[in-house]
Amino acid sequence: MRYRKTVEGIIEKIFFVCGLVSILSVLFITIFIFLRGLPLFQKVPLVSFLFSTNWSPTDTVKPTYGILSFIIGSFYITFGSLLLAVPIGVACGIFLSQIATRTVAKVMRSVVELLAGIPSVIYGFFGVMVLAKLIREIFGGNGYSVLTASIILAIMTLPTIVNITEVSLRAVPQELKEGSLALGATRWQTISKVLVPAARSGIMAGVVLGMGRAIGETMAVLMVAGNAPIMPKGPLSMARTLTMNIVTDMGYAAGDHMTSLFATGIVLFVFILGLNLAVHAIMKRSIKESV
Amino acid sequence: MKKCLKGSALALLTIALLVAPAMVFANGQSDTSAKPAAKVTSYNFGGSTTVEPIITTAIESFAKIHPEARISYDAPGSGPGIQGVIAGTYSLGASSRDISDDEKSKGVVPVAIALDGLSFIVNGSTINIDNLSKTDVAKIFSGEVTNWKQVGGPDAAIVVVVREEGSGTRTAVSDLILAPEFKAKNTASDKYLKEAITTPSNGDMIVKVGSTPNAIGYCGIGYLEDAIAKGGKAVMVNKVAANVANVLNKTYPASRYLYLLHKGDLVAGTVEKAFVDYILSADGQAIVEKAGYIKLPKK
Q1: Chain A residues whose beta carbon lies within 8 Å of the beta carbon of residue B195
Q2: Between chains, do A252 and B168 touch, taking CB under 8 Å as contact?
Q3: Which of A154, A230, B46, B112 has the fewest Cβ atoms within 10 Å of its own Cβ atom?
Q4: Could you write out the three-class secondary structure of chain B?
Q5: Do A129 and B211 make contact, defined as CB atoms within 8 angstroms?
Q6: pLDDT tens, B240-273?
Q7: Number of A–B residue contacts, CB under 8 Å
Q8: Inter-chain CB proximity A58 and B190 less than 8 Å
Q9: Which of A42, A227, A253 faces B198 most closely, judged by CB atoms?
């Protein structure tokens, strides 16, 4: 008896330590990014870092570190991808949970899951070889643009949105659906007036999670967005995102240039943290609603 | 229990966020100046990022012959490298630009170890230009010329592809093409066009120029064959083709020497002298070629 209790105790401790590893990783990475990035603000005012569009960190006369173009670039590309992915993803989720037969849903679900498993460099390669060419032929320009990156990112965020939409629609109590149908509502009326509103918090959480994926994606957008350090002027303009800025200049950066890349990381970190907090808040609300 | 753990995790994160800035501003400078204590067998070299691939590979193979010498190489750039040699921070420096008379008067002695040549490539399926003047190239990469017909090509917008900030190849274009062109007009040295596709590697550069219609970009001469295989086309500069022979006979305008630097003459028996000799040896020159640069002509 006593022996069993000690074993239980030890195993509990081991699991607790494993749990700590993830917390410590977050902690150390956070401290590291801040330690390496914050010294920049001793030389460059925060305001000019965040609100200047001039990025010339290796200028020999007067280096400048302004990342506004990249913040805007990140937002353009992220929202562009959501604009494409949300309608398609939510529709797909509704189809999978409410309309499709069991076999069709099974096949479709595994294909969507496969989409999530493709490495981002493959998406990027596809973007360079096929999509950029297509955009160039249809819309003109050089093919590397906000639009190209948004399309690639939309495909990449689809699985997140589809899965969470489907799960939250399935979580809607069966009685609601049955009640609606019993009152004489059509299938579409039931979906649009009863099920989707009941699952809206879950769907929102899926969208925000997809947004997190889109804003953090690096490799695929790096290959198709053109990467020019300019303020994007429209869907066909080239753009650079925060993640792209870090990975582009990382190779040879030194001194203040390197510090400015870590500072870019801090900005990205704050954005992602904000998004995660939003997801938590929405999830909490959705749990409250469903009870 | 779960709630309490979550609470403590959040508390830890909050503490981290609060403590990190304080730590930075308290001792942010100290960790950058901390260098390993100088041992008898430790050597600190530093300088150009362009020369870095040669030096780092050379250090590895040099260590096999001289296991007693532990050499490190910092790459803050040619300018800081030269300053470091003058100040004595680096016992051996490296530079991708010529040493000025002022720097020579402060005791810097350069030894040429390799040549670097830039080649300009255009998209082979859309642009059939064979030659561009050095001025045309400068105007294209600074954005003064935006259409191919202005330099004798088809009526199409020029798609400029450049390398990232800090890249040695980017700096070479800046130093060899843009600076000489714009210095006469008294403007800043880095006149690069911002609205350009930016790639972080030679490989990506070659693919982008080869696959994007109306594109122009650049790469080291060592990558030229690869670029042509991927759909690129080499252009001559001032009617001189970019090849090793033209770099060696100094007719090709976009080329330069790479140097190792030492304060005062090298003394026989020192590790610095042995290292310079190693890079000038057949083994060292093989490293030069492998890194994509041009080895020195045989005397």
Answers
A1: 228, 230, 238
A2: yes
A3: B112
A4: CHHHHHHHHHHHHHHHHHHHHHHHHHHCCHHHHCCCCCCCCEEEEEECCCCHHHHHHHHHHHHHHCCCCEEEEECCCHHHHHHHHHHCCCCEEEECCCCCHHHHHCCEEEEEEEEEEEEEEEECCCCCCCEECHHHHHHHHHCCCCEHHHHCCCCCECEEEEECCCCHHHHHHHHHHHHHHHHCCCCCCCCCCCCCEEECCHHHHHHHHHHCCCEEEEEEHHHHHHHHHCCEEEEEECCECCCHHHHHCCCCCCEEEEEEEEECCCCCCCHHHHHHHHHHCHHHHHHHHHCCCECCCCC
A5: yes
A6: 999 888 998 889 988 889 999 999 988 888 999 9
A7: 121
A8: yes
A9: A227
**Predicted interface score ipTM higher than 0.90:** no
Which residues of A fall within a CB distance of 8 Å from B167?
A: 251-252
Choose from A252, A272, A276, A284 for mutation: most chain B CBs within 10 A. Answer: A252
- Check CB contact under 8 Å for B198 and A226: yes
Closest CA in chain A for residue B166: A252
List residues of A whose CB lies inside 8 A of any B CB: 19, 23, 26-27, 30-31, 34-35, 38-39, 42, 55-61, 128-129, 132-133, 136, 142-144, 222-223, 226-230, 238, 240, 247-255, 257
The model's pLDDT over A200-229, given as tens digits with 9 standing for 90+, comes to 888 998 999 999 989 999 999 999 999 999
Contact at CB, B28 and A42, closer than 8 angstroms:
yes
Q: Which residue has the tokens 């020029």?
A: B158
Mean pLDDT confidence for B164-189? 74
